[in-house]
Structures
1.
Amino acid sequence: MAKSIRLAKRVVAESDRLAKDLSDRFNRAGVFVANLMSSPGAGKTTLLEETARRLKGELRMAAIEGDLATDRDARRIEAAGIPCRQINTGGGCHLSARQILDAIEGFDLAALDVLFIENVGNLVCPAEFDLGEHRRVVVSSTPEGDDKPVKYPIAFHHADCVVLNKLDLLAATNFSVEAFRRFVRGLKPRIPILGLSCRTGEGMEAWLDWVRDERRAVAEKSAKSAR
Amino acid sequence: MHEVALAQAIWRQVLSEMERQEGRRLVAIDLVVGAWSGADPESLEFALGLLIAESGWPQARARIRREPLALVCRACGREFEAEDLNLVCPGCGGLDVDPVRGQQLLLESLEVE
C-alpha cells in the first residue's frame, strides 16, 4: 500500500548550517569578510590586487579565490602582498560554505582584519549561497553595459555594495552611469555605488574607506561581545 | 547550473529516510522548486532521474511542483507574482521589493509502498 512520508526539508539546510558556523567563526575572530561577485572579467581580482597594495601596511588581509581552474588569481593576489588560498571548483559554478570551511583552515582568522572571498565569475549562482560573509559586493564594469542590474536582479538584490569598475573605459562605451545608478537604486534605494578605475586609481579611496568602515564596525562589535 | 549537486543533496536525504523505511519501495519524490530558488526544475529532474535509475528503485519518479516568485513592494505595499523574474511592481513601477514566496527548494515528501 502506498504511503506518503512528509519531510518538508530545505534542501540547502546543510549549506545554511555551515554558513552560520562560518559566520560565528568570523565574528568571534573579529575579521570582516566580504564576498565579491561579478560576471567573469569585471575586475574582481584587479580590485583585490589594488586593495592589497594600498592597504597592506594598514590592515591585515587575506583572500580566497574561487575559479573553475588554475591558481592564476591566487598567484596574482600573493604577488600583491597578501596570503591567498585558491579553490578550484572543477565544474562548480559558485563557492560553497563547505569549500570556505576547508580554505580557512590555512588562516589564523584572529590575526586577520579583513578576509576577501572572490567568488566564481558568475552573476547567477553565487548569489544563492551564503558563505557566512558580513557583506556582499557586486562588481560591475562599464564594458558590460549599464543594464546588468535589471538583467541579473537577484545578485544585485542581495548586494550590500556595488562597485562600478573600469570608469577609465567609459568614453569607449555607450555606458550611462546615470542609467546604471537608476537601475541599482531601483532595486536597492540606499546601497553604496562606488565608481572607480583600478587602472587609473580614480575612485579607489572611496572603496578603501568603505572597507575600512565595515572592518571597524565588525571589530568593534566583536570586541564588545568579548567583554 | 548546480542542479547535480542539489540532486545529490536531495538524494542523500532520500536515502537516509529510506533506511528508516526498511523493506518499503520508493515510488516518488515530491519537491517544491521556487522560481527564485536558484534551481532549474528540468535540470533537477534530469539529475535526480540519473540517481534514481542507478538505485534499487529505478521505477521511482521525481515530481516537481513549481512555486512562482511572489514579491511585496516596499514602496506601495502591493503583493504580486513576478513572471520571468521581472521584479518591477505592477502597482507603482518600483523595483524595491522583497520576496515573500518562491525562494525555497523543498523536499516535501516521499511516496513509498
Note: Residues 3-68+101-112 of chain B form a domain with the hypothetical protein PF0899 fold fold (CATH 3.30.2320.50).
2.
Amino acid sequence: MPCDGGFIVRPKSFYHEQEKRARHRRLIDRAFRWLGMILTVTTLGVLGVLLLNLAMNGLGRIDWNFLTSFPSRRAGEAGILSAWVGTLLLMLVTASAAIPFGVAAGIYLEEYAPKNRMTDFVEINISNLAGVPSILYGLMALGLFVYQFRFGQSLLAGGLALACLVLPIVIVATRESLRTIPSSIREAAFALGATRWQAVWHHLLPYSTGGISTGVILAMSRAIGESAPLITIGALTFIAFLPPAPLIAHAPFVSGEWLFSPFTALPIQMFNWVSRPGEEFQSNAAAAGLILMVITLSMNAAAILLRKRAQRNITW
Amino acid sequence: MNSSSPNPRAGTEPPTAGSPEAIKVQIQGLSFFYGNHQVLRSVSMDVPALKVTALIGPSGCGKTTLLRCMNRMHDLYPGNRYVGRIVVQPDGTDIIAPEVDPIQVRMRFGMVFQKPNPFPKSIYENVAYGLRLQGVNQRKELDEKVEKALREAALWDEAKSRLHQMAHNLSGGQQQRLCIARAIATDPDVVLFDEPTSALDPIATSKIEELIVELKKRVTVMIVTHNLQQAGRISDMTAFMYLGELIEFGETNRMFTNPAKPQTEDYISGRFG
C-alpha cells in the first residue's frame, strides 16, 4: 500500500470495489428481511384462515341451546353439554394428578437430586417422554388404568392418561423456573439455618409460582385438545347424560362417583361429527372446534399474562 | 501492643501479648478438599472473641473457602471433605465433625455475602426469617427483635416507615445493611462477612465498615476482604493466606507495619496479589 505522510493512499478502484461489496451485502440483508416477513405472515395467515373458516361455518351454530343440549341424531338439536362438562372434569383430573407429581419431580431433580449419571439419564428420558406420540400414552393407559387398575373407560382413566402426557411439560417448566432463581437466594436461606425443604417451601416455590403456573396452563392447553389417547382408552362418542355430581346433598357432601363415569370430550365430540355425512353436522363440528380454539387461546393468553406479572413482581 | 515480643509459634501469636483474651473459635489443622483438589492446607488459628478478624490474600488463596467452612456452607455442594477441627468456645463443639448438624452450625454463625441478597419479600420478613426458622412466632417478640436488629444495622430510621415494602426498593448499601440485620437478628455467636462491600460505592462501604466496628461489641466478626485498607481500618486481627496456607496471623497493626514473613510484606506493600 503506498504511503504518504502517514496516510494510507488507496486507488479509487478500491473504494469502488468496497462500495460494490457493501451493496451486495445490503441486498442479502434486505432479501432476508422480506423472506422472513413473508414466512411469518404465511404462518399467521394459515392460522387466521383456519379460525375464519371455523367461525364462518360454526359461529351461526353457537347459542345457548348448543351449550346446554346433549348430542342428538338430529344435527339441529345436537349440543355439546356432555362434551364440555367431560372436558372440564377431565382437566380437573389431569391437573390434580399432573401438578403435584410434575412439580414434586421438578423440585426433586433441580434441588435435591445429586448430579450424576443416573440423574442425567433420568433427565434425558424426561425430554424423550415429551416426544412420545400421544396415542402410545393411550395404549399405556388402556393397559394400566383401564384394565390393571380396573378404572374402566372412565374420566379417571382418561384424566390420568392426559396427566402422563403432559407430565414432562410440567416437570420441565418447574425446573426451568427454579433455575432462574439465583443461587445467592438459596445460600441466604441456608445460611440462616433453613433445611432444603424450608428453602423450597418458603422461598423457591413462592418465587417460581409464576413460571410454574405458566407451564401448567400450557400443559393443560395441550391436554385439552388431545383426542387420540382418549379414543384409545375408549371414551364414548355419544353420551346423553352427565356424570354424577361431585357435590351431594348428604354427608360427606362430596362424591367421587363421577370419576368412574363414562365420558366424552370436546375433541371427541368434534371427531364424531366430522365423520358424519351431512352439512349440518359439519357446522356442529366447526362450532365445537371454535369453542375449543377459544378455550385454548384464552389459556395461552392467561399463561402469557401470568408470566408477565410474575416477572414484574420479583427481582433479584 | 508489644510487637517486639518473640513469637514461639510460627506465624501466629496470641491476640494481645500479655493479656490473654477469650478465644471464640479455634481452627486446628484444617484442610479442605473439593474432590481431589486441596484448597486449604492445614490452617490453624485462634479467632478471638468480640474482635474483628480479617482474612486477606490474593484471589484463589482460600480465604473465602475458609470462611465458608465456618458455617458448613460447603456441605450444600457435593464433593467436599474437611480434615481437622474447628472448635467453638465456650462449649468446645467441633463444628466440622460429621455428627454435627450443619443447620445447627449455621444458626450460630451468621453470614453476609458479597452481593446483597435480600429475599424478594418485605423488609420486615427478611429480618424476621431467621427468627421464624428458630421458632419465634409471637408477633410482639418478632416486632421487637426485628426493630433491634434493624437499629443495630443502622437501618431503622430509613426503614421504619416502610417495613412492609419490598426489600428490593432499598438501595444497594441499604440492602446490604438489611442483610446484616437479617444475619444478626438471631443473635449468632459469630458473623462471617464475605467481601461485604465489594459491590458497594465508597459511601455505602464506609457505613458498612462503621457498622462492623460497632458490631464487635457484642459479636465476633470474621471478614474476607480484598481491600487491604479496609482490613487496616476495621480489623483487630489479620490473617494472610496464600495458596491455601495461612502464612501469617497476628494483630493488624503489627501485620501491616512489621510483618514477620516476606510474603506478607510483599503482599501488603503491593508487590504481588
Note: The first strand of chain B starts at residue 23 and ends at 34.
